Amino acid sequence: MNGPRALLGAMFRAAVDAAAAGRCVPPHLPPPPRGRTVVVGAGKAAAAMARAVEAHWPADRPLSGLVVTRYGHGVGPLARIEVIEAAHPVPDAASGAAAARILAAVRGLGPEDLVLALISGGGSALLALPAPGVSLADKQAVARALLASGADIREMNAVRKHLSAIKGGRLAAAAAPAPVVTLAISDVPGDDLAVIASGPTVADPTTLADARAVLARYAITPPAAVAARLADPAAETPKPGAAFAANRALLVATPEAALLAAAEVARGAGVRPVILSDAIEGEAREVARVLAAIARHAADRGLPAAPPCVLISGGETTVAVRGKGRGGRNAEFLLALAVALDGHPAIHALAADTDGIDGTEDNAGALLGPDSLARAAAAGLRARAMLADNDGYGFFAALGDLVVTGPTLTNVNDFRAILIGFAAPG
Q1: What pTM, to 2 d.p., does this model score?
Q2: Which of 302, 397, 412, 425 is packed most tightly, with the most Cβ within 10 A?
């Protein structure tokens, strides 16, 4: 392995490959039913998952359906499953049209038919069918406010489910009496199936009161139609019970599996991997300060592991947007890490989103080295000022240190690796 950056890049690729739909979907496919199989799905991995289903489904068994994915995350036309593209993270009209068609596709089925739901991160925005009385503009306004507030994914999805005609178990309710088998790629801390894409096919444990509390917590004043919806007891989502008894939901790829794959790459290079957690949450710059302290302790005192070692973590941080720069939570994390490490000579790092898109930007993440701050200063960049402006993207773009992969067609959340004391064999 040639150098710290090459090792970090190889670890990130291994993490992404571990969650590739072509690898993780086929082993979990259910047997074909006596009747029809209708495939529906939503998320950044939905098109790749649909392609994997088609490639492994018996040619003589009925198969049809449609899935919706983010713009640019399609895989080209498929033979039996239609792929639609829509906007993320703020939904557009295509999101609503796709959700309406998916609902229509599962209605009228019988108990001998099967609904195969392919769910992955990003599905919440891509299945944006407003509940009665709520407009798309209303949902867009709430989505933007939540994204800027620093709310975590569970909080955002508690609100989304109660403003939707399809999420929070409503897709499965529409499919009854047909059984639903859900194959999910997790992008959420804790791998909660009710949170992934706002759980369109599983019962919802959150309540209208929970949704109202989220908006109050972040001082978000919703549009009048949203407030009315969240105050209406009839708008409550389906709860656990007999209606979901015939359904199954399986996790086919998880953040933990991705981190384990990256750890094997490190081990093969003679570096001890330390997996901190696959479910780290919190403000990106605060998480960076904590991980910087752990990295310094490892570099200077050999704990929790002696160098060469690598601290690996996943999860989903948040960013409370205060500045006007171009960010992404991984770029924000890495810039805060750079400031906290202050050019420590033994530490390199990579932070990137496994879907290939850091927030709304065109990069997956970025790389950090001991010389990053010095190179930035030589170029006239002020790291602390750019962090205050939420401009991590601008900082690493100016250094040529963005990680650009394009859409990876999967999503198991963020990947962070802090490499300590590694020198490539010479």
Answers
A1: 0.91
A2: 412
Helix (H) or strand (E) holding 11: helix 3-18
pLDDT at 89: 87
Report DSSP letters for 255-290, one per residue. Answer: HHHHHHHHHHHHHHTT-EEEEEEEEEEEEHHHHHHH
Helices first, then strands: H and E counts in the chain? 16, 12
- Choosing from 253, 275, 305, the residue where a domain stops is 253
pLDDT computed for residue 426 by the predictor: 54
Q: In terms of residue numbers, what domain contains 356? A: 3-14+255-420
- Is 67 within the bounds of a domain? yes
Q: Give the end of a domain, one of 195, 228, 253.
A: 253
CA of 84: how far to CAs of 43, 47, 77, in Å? 11, 8, 10
Quick one: 284 and 236 in the same domain? no
Q: Which residues of the chain have pLDDT under 70?
A: 1, 424-426
3-state secondary structure of 358: coil
Cis peptide before 89 (omega within 30 of 0): yes
Class of residue 213 by CB neighbours under 10 A (exposed 0-12, middle 13-18, buried 19+): middle
Token reading at 83: 């792929």
Q: Is 181 helix (H, G, I), strand (E, B) or coil?
A: strand
User: Looking at this protein, which amino acid is placed at residue 163?
Assistant: L
pLDDT at 2: 81
Strand partners, 365: 352, 403
Please, what's the largest Cα pairwise distance for the chain? Answer: 68
**Residue 308: which CATH number?**
3.40.1480.10
What pLDDT is recorded for position 206? 95
Domain assignment present for residue 345? The answer is yes
The H or E element spanning position 64 is strand 64-70
Within this chain, do residues 208 and 286 fall inside the same structural domain, yes or no? no
Neighbours of 327 (CB within 10 A): 26
Whether the Cβ atoms of residue 130 and residue 136 lie closer than 8 Å to each other: yes
- Residue 271 and residue 399 in one domain: yes
Question: Rounded CA gap, 145 and 163, in Å?
Answer: 15
| CATH for 248 | 3.40.50.10180
Query: Which residue is listed with tokens 């309710």?
Result: 173
Alpha-carbon distance values, 327 to 81, 179, 283 (Å):
35, 42, 13
